[in-house]
């Protein structure tokens, strides 16, 4: 490698360390990426390449069957390198400004089968007011697909149980209406009429049931926090030894997956989940297709 190129690499490393505050691991990876790239140029100055040359390099490294995450990082290294060279006025224009990495594959959301959900719901101890509250919370997560933050933020003014509707405020305070099953509604009504009043320890005051009062409260009368709901789920999953990591969001994924598998319109599911764009909802069709293939393989005599 030419001395000038070595100088660029050293200055780049200083830039990443001092100004970008990269970790030692990331710093080493980016430096290695740029050294490999310069060696590939085989004597051509890194200052003299154009966009087509950079694309040629990306096509070259595709041969090595790197993971997409690795290629994405190598692309980011080059983009950052040329951004640095341009900032330092070593080049008059940035050839990497439009360079894009391959899209990273989105992992499929984890979800529970209806039988697994019922197993969890049936193992909630409801012999205490707090236990009954926890049962209602999990019933609502399964019935509505709400985010845990949306559920913990519910107030009495958000309920329209006569129409089996609940108003929730999602990301960016975006308002939407979710639907509630009769089963979940009955549990919620029982909680409001009896268990909620008994949750608060003596010495604390149970908040009123006006429009701005929280529905789900803790033993001190304050709004129940997300972490408490997560803890409840973890304890139940450990107790029944379910071999899956279960979070409140897994209930949301399970809700959406079941709707899609039963033929629900994608736009309806999008509205119920509060997704800003349909692309966020489409991932559940991949889950459904996977399920269909599994059923086909197991049920058809000639399988796949």
Describe this structure in words.
It is elongated, with a radius of gyration of 27 Å. It is mainly alpha-helical. The two termini are 53 Å apart. It has a three-stranded antiparallel beta sheet with strand order 1-2-3. The model has no long low-confidence stretch (mean pLDDT 89). It has helices at residues 3-19, 24-41, 51-62, 68-87, 114-121, 129-144, 148-152, 182-199, 226-240, 248-261, 266-273, 278-299, and strands at 159-160, 165-169, 175-179. The longest helix is centred in the C-terminal third of the chain and has 22 residues, at 278-299. The protein contains twelve helices and three strands. α1 (3-19) packs antiparallel against α2 and α6 (129-144) runs antiparallel to α8. The chain has two domains: 3-87, Orthogonal Bundle (DNA polymerase, domain 1), CATH 1.10.150; 114-299, hpI Integrase, Chain A, CATH 1.10.443.
Short précis:
The protein is mainly alpha-helical. It is built from twelve helices and three strands; from the N terminus they run αααααααβββααααα.
Overall helicity: 55-70%
Structural class estimated from helices and strands: mainly alpha
Q: Give, in order, the helices and strands.
A: HHHHHHHEEEHHHHH
Distance between the termini: 53 Å
Tally of separate domains: 2
Mean of residue pLDDT? 89
Strand order across the biggest sheet? Answer: 1-2-3
- Count of individual beta strands: 3
Q: How large is the count of helical segments?
A: 12
CATH architecture type of the largest domain: Orthogonal Bundle
CATH class of the largest domain equals Mainly Alpha
């Amino acid at each position: 490698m030419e001395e000038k190129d070595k100088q660029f690499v050293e200055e780049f490393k200083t830039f990443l360390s001092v100004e970008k505050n990269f970790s030692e691991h990331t710093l080493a990876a980016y430096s290695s990426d740029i050294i490999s790239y310069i060696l590939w140029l085989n004597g051509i100055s890194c200052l003299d390449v154009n966009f087509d040359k950079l694309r040629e390099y990306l096509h070259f490294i595709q041969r090595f069957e790197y993971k997409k995450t690795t290629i994405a990082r190598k692309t980011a290294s080059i983009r950052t390198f040329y951004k640095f060279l341009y900032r330092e006025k070593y080049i008059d224009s940035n050839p990497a400004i439009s360079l894009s990495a391959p899209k990273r594959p989105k992992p499929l959301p984890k979800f529970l089968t209806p039988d697994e959900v019922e197993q969890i719901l049936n193992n909630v101890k409801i012999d205490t007011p707090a236990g009954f509250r926890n049962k209602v919370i999990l019933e609502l997560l399964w019935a509505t697909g709400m985010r845990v933050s949306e559920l913990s933020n519910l107030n009495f003014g958000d309920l329209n149980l006569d129409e089996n509707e609940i108003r929730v405020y999602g990301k960016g305070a975006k308002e939407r209406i979710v639907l509630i099953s009769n089963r979940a509604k009955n549990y919620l009504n029982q909680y409001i009429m009896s268990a909620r009043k008994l949750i608060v320890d003596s010495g604390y005051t149970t908040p009123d049931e006006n429009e701005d009062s929280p529905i789900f409260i803790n033993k001190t009368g304050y709004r129940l926090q997300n972490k408490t709901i997560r803890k409840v789920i973890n304890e139940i999953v450990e107790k029944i030894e379910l071999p899956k990591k279960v979070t409140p969001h897994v209930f949301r994924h399970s809700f959406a997956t079941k709707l899609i598998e039963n033929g629900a319109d994608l736009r309806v599911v999008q509205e119920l989940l509060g997704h800003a764009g349909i692309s966020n909802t489409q991932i559940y069709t991949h889950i459904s297709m996977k399920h269909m293939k599994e059923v086909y393989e197991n049920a058809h005599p000639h399988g796949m």
